[in-house]
Structures are given as structure tokens and as C-alpha cells.
Amino acid sequence: MRTKAFVPYLFLTPALVLFAIFMGYPIVYSLLLSFQTSVSGELVFTGLDNYAKLFSDKIFGKALLNTFIILIVQVPLMLFTSLLLATLLNSLKRFKALFRVAFFMPAVTSLIAASIIFSIILMNDGILNQLLGAVGIDPIPWLSHPVWAKVSLIIAMTWRWTGYNMVIYLAGLQNVSESLYEAASIDGATRVRQFFNITIPQLKPIILFTAILSTIGTLQLFEEPYTLTKGGPSDATITIGMYLYQTGFRYFNFGYASTLAYVIVILIGILSYIQFKVTGDE
Q1: CB burial string 191-220: b at 16+ within 10 A, e below
Q2: Dihedral sign (CA 84, 90, 93, 97)
């Protein structure tokens, strides 16, 4: 019996309707909102005024700078550490599963619980400063100094997402032929040289994948600064994602918040394109 042509579309209809309601409509509506400004409680079309406002908005400039500092420092550090750990774990003969679970646990740990623990550890009289004091180092204002607050965020994010990326690299390493390493060993290549000349080139598509995912995650960064530093001190850790939240849900300026959202989309598109070009992938 021949299936009628409309039957597949009938099955697809619920998914398409849900997509249109919960994805398509918000995307289009937020785009329209980005060209509007609230005047006396009414949204008024103001063209590109919101986009022009970005160039004179000092808080946006600070949020953009903070986000890029965290992106440039944290993402390469995290990805390299993940790759290194994955390589070490892949060479282990015993307890491999135990270490996998141990390193992956932060990714599934409650963010609120993790932030509370980090806040306790990084307090002026917290355990980290006590350990530093034991070796003669003065206490560090981890959460109250503009520079150290950024360092604290980077540490927290690296701790949280290193294991997640490590598991992805570990899966990729299962497809790298052992014969490559055996041939390199016969030729006298050290483990370090094998890592840079075999492991990294073989995992290039996966590294690109994780780099793009991490870039997107950092540009949307909100939870860590919100729960750990509240964007302070003096907006030193405010990010674009956090500024978007404050603009939309604290000051109820949804037009400008939508503009910030589309700035993030544009930045993600540009940085992803650059990453594809730098790595030479299509």
C-alpha cells in the first residue's frame, strides 16, 4: 500500500508547531524588539538607535572587555588542560573509569552548590588563603579585587568545564590509531613530541568543535559571575550575558536587552567563522 504524500508532514507538524512557537516566534519578536525603545511604558520603533547607543554605553564596553579577557585566557587554558588530561587518562591501564567520573563530576554538580563552596574557599579567611599563609604568602582578595575576581571566575569555570571537554577528547582519542604512536616510538619520538605531532593534529576537528562550543558558552556567560561575584567589584566581572539580564529583567528595557542579545549572536558568528578559517576547516 502506497503511503500518501502528506503523511510524513502530518507527523512532523507537532514538532514544527512547537518549534515555531518556542523558537521561531521569540527569535523574530526579539529582533523586532531590538529596534524599539520603551517610552512612557509604550514600545516605540526607533530604528537603529539601540545599536548606536552601544558605542556610547560604558557598561557595555566594560562587559565586552571582561567577556573577551575571560574568553582569551580561560578557553585555551581549559581546552589544553582537557586535552592533556584526556591523553594521560587514555594511557592509563587501570582506574580509567574512576578518573573519568571524578573529572566529569564538576560538569553535573549543581552550580549554586559549587558557587557556595568556591565562595567559602575564596573568602579572605578561606581555606585557600590559609594555605597560602602557611607558606608565608599574604592573603589574596580573590573576590574583592578587580583582577583577582576575574582570576577566581576563570578558576571556577576551568574547574567546572575541563572534565566535560576531557570526556569529548577521550572519545576522539579512541579513533586515533595506535600504530601511529608505535611508529613514532620506533623513530625515537618522545611522548611530548607525539602529543604535539600526532594527538593534536588527529583531534583537530574535535578541538575546533570544543573551541566553538566553549566560545559560545563564554560569550553567554552568566551563571558563574552572577552567583560568585554579582558582577563586582565595580563591574569588574560583569559580562555581556549578565548585562543583558540586568537590562531586561532588572530595568525592564527589553528593547535594549534584545539588541545586546543580537550583538552576542553576531559575535558568536564572527568568532566561529574566524575559528573555522584559522584551522582550515570548511
Answers
A1: eeebeeebbeebbeebbbbbbbbbbeebbb
A2: positive
Read off the pLDDT of residues 181-213 as tens digits, 9 standing for 90 and up: 899 999 888 989 999 999 999 999 999 999 999
Mean pLDDT of the region 237-266: 92
Handedness of CA 89, 93, 97, 101 (dihedral sign): negative
The answer on pLDDT for 4 being more than 80 is no
For 211-222, what is the mean pLDDT?
Answer: 91
Query: Which pLDDT belongs to residue 108?
Result: 86
Give a three-class secondary structure readout of the chain. CCCCCCHHHHHHHHHHHHHHHHHHHHHHHHHHHCCEEEECCEEEECCCHHHHHHHHCHHHHHHHHHHHHHHHHHHHHHHHHHHHHHHHHHHCCCCHHHHHHHHHHHHHCCHHHHHHHHHHHCCCCCHHHHHHHHCCCCCCCCCCCHHHHHHHHHHHHHHHHHHHHHHHHHHHHCCCCHHHHHHHHHCCCCHHHHHHHHHHHHCHHHHHHHHHHHHHHHHCCCHHHHHHCCCCCCCCCCCHHHHHHHHHHHCCCHHHHHHHHHHHHHHHHHHHHHHHHHHCCC
Q: What is the pLDDT of residue 282?
A: 58
| Residue with more model confidence, 5 or 148 | 148
Residue 1 predicted with pLDDT over 60? no
